Please model this.
Amino acid sequence: MKRTWQIDDVTEAARARIATARLAAAYGVPALDRTRLTTALSAQLRQCLTKGGTWLLTLDVTAGGAEPGALHVSLVPCDPAQSAAQPPWRATVDCPGAAAPVDGCEPPDEAPEPAESLLWADEDTAVVLEKLADQEELVAFHREELHQTNQGVVALHAELDAAGRAQREAFAAERKARREAEKASRRLTFLANTSAVLTSSLNHEEIVRRLPELLVPEYARSVDVWLFDGDGDRQPPTPHPAAAVVAARTGRPQYAGPGPGGLPGVDDQPPSALDPELPLLCIPLPTRRAPLGVLTLAPPGDGWDPDDAVMLIELARRASIAIDNARRFEHHRDIAETLQRALLTDLPTTPGLRLAARYLPATHGLNIGGDWYDAFRQPDGSLITVIGDVTGHGLHAAVMMSQLRTALRAYAVDGGSPGTLLTRLHTFLHHLQPDLYATAVIARFHPAEPTLTWAAAGHPPPVLRTPDGRVHTLDQKPGAMLGIPLHQEIDDHTVSLPPGSTLALYTDGLVERRAQGIDPGITRLAHALEDLPPHALEGDLDGSADRILDPLLSDSERDDDICLLLCHIATDLA
Model:
């Protein structure tokens, strides 16, 4: 169905608006959409009347069939010239009842009365107000929902904030615990590494020198080590803080500073008169008998952490043990070296035979005391030379070496070949010290005989250089070590010994290396002896001994004694 109206004044416009409202109501257009449509149409009609001219309003209702119907409204100028100034206006609304016949929708012949217009307006407005009331209820419902949601959000934010605070506190506690664990681990690592450094040395002066290097600057600004015994022998006396004196007297750690230290296991003392503003931690160096000194520390900052102070006290205890052990070692080493040097014989002077000997004590560990050499005459005029090595080290080995030396000289008075003397020494050592063993080589020179008689018992073989410069190793059938629980008869061996020959007797400390064994060292000794010029052996046997030692000691750790005995037959014997 289609309806049209020409509009050129206000009356026609009012009629057209009313007809549009009735038609929309008749076809079931919802009140809200109907009100919107008439309001928009009224606005367009006012604009058209303002511009003047004649306008054509068209209402076209289309049946929906399966789809809902629609009401199409258009307002266009009748004069085509006005189309450029005022474009057509169109609107469409859904009509649920578009298929129903409509009557009475023609525009009225006369202008509607104001009361009728208001009646229609009130009818539409009532419907709109009813819809608005429903919308207000819905808005109120949603507003209450929003309010409750806001309250829930506020509560959730409060819970999240509380959870965030708890999480931050947990993270802070975890970081603090991690820092404390890292500090504890660093302290333990420092204590272990420092202890290893201190105990690796057997020189107490080196230990005292290393302490400041280890503690400064992480745990101390300055370090002073006060040792009670021997300080005055090496340096002028220096004043010590009163707290250090108290620590030495009581054996307890002392703290001196402007205020209390609050350190566990440490007594507080007044500030030091030497520097009242400087805090000091004075830790005694304890031993089983009495403190051997005091370690005085100045803090790296304002003071010490209590855990650091505990670590420093433990470090002082370990340093004290290391210093005490080093002093004991030095004492025993000095006694053993003094005894051994006292027991080493002065080489005799024999016509036609030149002797040169070298003894070098071990410089690493308490390994001195076992190596020895000797040379003496027998009643028949022959000369006995011997070199040996007692197993074990230290003072006990030096004492046993002296007993073997004395026993050998006593047996040699009755005569006897080198093999016989070694056999008797084997029996003597086995009965005297069943758990102690020795090795030895005895070589006998006789002025009237151009031969060398020798015997060996578990010892590195002698090396002989002949006048033609060739070097031979005398390794024929040596006996076993002296003192082992085995009956043995040690054989003698002879070799020609023309003038100009040189015999080298030595101990294993000269040729043995841990990574290589002993055979490469014997080869190096043979090469060193072979490289010596004949005039050096003839004119300067002592210098020749030094020239042999120099290349052989270049890679030595000096962890064992070294003995070398050179025997050279002078060429003037010819």
